[in-house]
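Fig. S4 source data, part A: sequence.
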Amino acid sequence: MDDRCLRVVRLRLPGLTELLYVLRQHGRSVDDERYPGAERLLAADGHVVAATSPSRLIAANVGDGALAAPVQPGMLVLDVRAVGHRLGRSPMRWTGTTRGAIVEFDDLVWDAAATCDDMDWAERVRDGAGFHALYDFVWGDANEPPPGAQRRALWGAMVAQLGDHLVVVDRHRQL
C-alpha cells in the first residue's frame, strides 16, 4: 500500500506580513543514507518553493520537480514568529503547542536542508549543541535546554537559514 500524500504547511515567519505555504511529501524519503527521515519538499533550482496561497503552491507543483501524491486535507500550521518570542520564557511555561512547533520546525528545516542537498546546513540543524538541542530537550533526550538568549539566537539562525533557501511564488513571480 502506498502511504504517500502531500501535506500543505503554513508558516508565519518573523519579518513577513504574509503567510507562506510549503508542500511536503509524506512517505517519500530524500536520501535515508545521508538524511535519515527527511521528507521531500517541493523545490526548484536548489531552493524550497513557497507560495503566498495554498492554491498557488499546488499550481506550482508541476514540471520536473513535481511531487506526485494526493493532497491531504487540512494543513500543518507553524507560527514560527510566536514561538520565537515564547522561547525566552522558562521551558516550564512552554505549552504543548509551543513544544510541538519546535519539533515540527526542526523537522521542516531538516527536510529543507535535505531537499536542497545542503550537507553543511543539515549538520548545523542536527548539531546537538545547536538548534537540535531544543528538539532533544522537548523529547526528553536532554535534561536542560540551552539558556534563553541562546535559544532565541539558535531559533533566529534557523529561521534565517530557511529564509535563505526559499523562493516565493506569488502573483508577481512564477516558476
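Fig. S4 source data, part B ends here. The chain has six helices and seven strands.
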